[in-house]
Amino acid sequence: MSHNQQIGRWGEQIAADYLKEKGYEILGVNSRTPFGEIDIVALFAGQIFFVEVKTRTTNSHGLPEEALSKAKLNRMKNCAEFYAAEHEIDSWQCDAISINGKPNLKPSIEYFENVTR
Question: Which structural domain, as residue segments, surrounds residue 37?
C-alpha cells in the first residue's frame, strides 16, 4: 500500500470514528459502484449519507476540501444514485469530511453537508 493510500485509510478511519461519535451508524466503507467508490455509507435519523473523505497531512497542496472538484462531485453523485437505486434508498444526501493532520497527532476535522446540490 502506498503512502497516500495509508494516509487515505487513516483519514477514513478518523472520519468513521467522528461520525460514530455523532450518532451515525456506519453501514459501509469503500463501497464500490460502477462509477467509483463511496468512502463511507452511514445512517443517521432514518437517512442515508454518502460521505467523501479528503485527507491531507500538509497544506502545501491546499486544504483537503479543495480536492472536491466539480468532476469529483459529479462522480460522487453518480455513485450515490447507483447505490441508492440498487438498495432501494429514497432519502439520502452526499456529504464530505475534511481531515487535516498526521497519524499520532490530533487532526482537524471539518464536515460539509449536501456537497452535490
Answer: 3-112
83 falls within a domain: yes
* 36-58 pLDDT per residue, tens: 999 999 999 999 999 999 999 88
**Domain membership flag for residue 18:** yes
- CATH (domain of 102): 3.40.1350.10
Phi, psi of 20 (to 5 degrees): -60, -40
Q: Are 42 and 87 in contact (CB under 8 A)?
A: no
Tell me the CA end-to-end span of the chain in Å, nearest whole number. 34
Q: In terms of Cα–Cα distance, which of 96, 101, 64, 65 is closest to 80?
A: 96
pLDDT digits (tens, 9 = 90+) for 64-115: 888 899 999 999 999 999 999 999 999 999 999 999 998 888 899 999 999 9
Q: How many structural domains is the chain composed of? A: 1
Is 25:49 a contact under the CB 8 Å cutoff? no
